[in-house]
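DM from R.C. (forwarded with permission)

"hey, sorry to bug you on a friday — could you get me a structure for this? deadline for the figure draft is monday and I only need the backbone to look sensible"
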Amino acid sequence: MKKVPSKNEVSENNNPNGSIIIEIPSIEANFSSTEHCETAGHCHGALFQDAGERNKIGAYLLEFGITLHSVLIGLTLGTTSESFVPLFIALCFHQFFEAIALGAQIAHSKRISIKSAIFMVVFFAFTTPVGIAIGIGIHSGTYNPKSVSSLLATGILDSLAAGILIYVALVNLITTEMGVHALEFHALSNRLKLLYFGALYLGVAAMAIIGRWA
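My reply, with the result:
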């Protein structure tokens, strides 16, 4: 009984003329699992391949990092008594830039509902005043901002917030807007790309300068 080679097998047969016939395996089967992954959605990593879901997670992470940091700087403003005016001015600019970043991320994500977006905005608006109120209440008591426990707690929370913000900025914001799959960005002229990068570096420099006081 003669065996008939399948599509996924490579066989060499001699035809009557003496030449060799090579059957190349079909690539349809190689794409069947991918098509099934796209239709059924059961494959590992499918969640991370969805740009909308990545933007949604990035917005939530950015919200968490910003609100945590806002409470901390509000706490700092509420407990300070020497450099209140420069710290307050730096805080206003700091919150302004963070609000723009958060609003742009929420608007860019199409998976966040209107109710969730309103809740995120209102929650962000209340974090700094809450931090200031906590700082004023602590400052009226026996709070010592230069004690070991206070410095340790502030350092841990600051590092946590900074790590989240850096991760969101590099992975979710810059990669999404200027990465390999950002077709709209790569379709721009070199002059506009240079302008984009200049604005990015200018924003980083501005936040670094403001961070001197905030």
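R.C.: lifesaver. The two ends are 83 Å apart (CA to CA).
me: no worries. Residues 148-178 form the longest helix (31 residues).
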